Amino acid sequence: MPQRTLLFVLFDGVQSLDVTGPMEVFAGAEKHTPGSYRIRTASLDGGPVRTSSGLTLVPDGALTAASDPHTLVVPGGAGTRAPDPRLIDWLRAHGPRARRLVSVCTGAILLAAAGLLDGRRATTHWAYCDKLARDHPAVTVEPDPIYVRDAEVATSAGVTSGIDLALALVEEDLDRDVALDIARHLVVFLRRPGNQAQFSAQLAAQTAQRAPLREVQQWITEHPAGDLTVESLAARARLSPRHFARAFREETGMTPGRYVDRVRLEHARRLLEDTADGIEEIARAGGYGTPEAMRRAFLRALGTSPAEYRRRFHPAPAR
């Protein structure tokens, strides 16, 4: 098995967890399977860098002296807002030489500035997706997924999603059992699927200001299989259906139907990932009624069926 060299790019204002999160995953893989990875860090001049949290990181050397890696990892952080032009020049020259390009959080902004995301799909932290799309129109920005793979380029969303992406890469490089052992050691999911939304339904929607609407939001979350028609929810909020639908959208940013759809999909996904319940049972528990209705909802939102979703992303049982 060939050893893969990973080079983490360091710079002042880097987010420390963007570096250490994925690094812990790859270091765990190296301990599990010696010879699988060689991990290096480098800054522009080889000097220490100060992270956005105040932690000082001492790199292994300078980027100018680094050999071309198998995987180049570019983290994000406050330092991406006004990056050193020399860093962008280095990425532009050396990025294409890596067999695999990876960014964590706003590291995608650095890759885009170097022209390495042109014509590709990418994501970044939700707060910077609009900026990435506006500043780099040649990049197809996908704001929802926690990470996006486009051939040899992989970009991830905010902070902890770098761990999810690193686990996915370890599973690809080695195997699922190695990734599972690392996930257990780090006490994280084996990996959240890349197309999982950056926000849960509750976080994606605004919290309603009025108590009756907040209570309805909570009730929907706790009873995805209940009667969630507008008429029923309006009665629970003691409002007319028309007034309820208008107020709900004004205060949460989405229609009641859209909110119900997201809650039900999220609930079904959790059951598929975390339980051995049958598809028919999950369809009932999620409020879909029939497996076919759930299948249509999954195909519409995720482009895959519930059975395929489980096959690809359900963690293997502990041995």
Sheet with the most strands? 7 strands, mixed
Give the spatial strand order of the biggest sheet: 5-2-1-6-7-11-10
User: Low-confidence parts, pLDDT < 50 over ≥5 residues?
Assistant: 314-319
Number of strands: 11
Approximate helicity band = 40-55%
Description:
One of its GO terms (molecular function) is sequence-specific DNA binding. This is AraC family transcriptional regulator. Residues 214-312 form the HTH araC/xylS-type domain. It is a single chain. With 319 residues, this protein is of the alpha/beta class. The chain has two domains: 4-186, Class I glutamine amidotransferase (GATase) domain (Rossmann fold, 3-Layer(aba) Sandwich), CATH 3.40.50.880; 200-319, Orthogonal Bundle (Arc Repressor Mutant, subunit A). Helices cover 46% and strands 12% of the residues. It contains 14 helices and eleven strands. The chain has helices at residues 16-32, 85-94, 107-113, 129-135, 161-173, 176-186, 201-204, 211-222, 230-236, 241-252, 256-274, 279-285, 291-302, 306-313; strands at 4-9, 37-43, 49-50, 56-57, 61-62, 71-74, 100-103, 121-122, 140-141, 147-150, 153-156. The strands form three sheets. It has a seven-stranded mixed beta sheet, with helices on both faces. A two-stranded antiparallel sheet has the order 3-4. Strands 8-9 form a two-stranded parallel ribbon. β10 (147-150) and β11 (153-156) form a beta hairpin. α1 (16-32) packs across α6 (176-186), α5 runs antiparallel to α6 (176-186) and α11 runs antiparallel to α12. The radius of gyration is 22 Å and the shape is globular. It starts with a strand and ends in a 6-residue tail after the last helix.
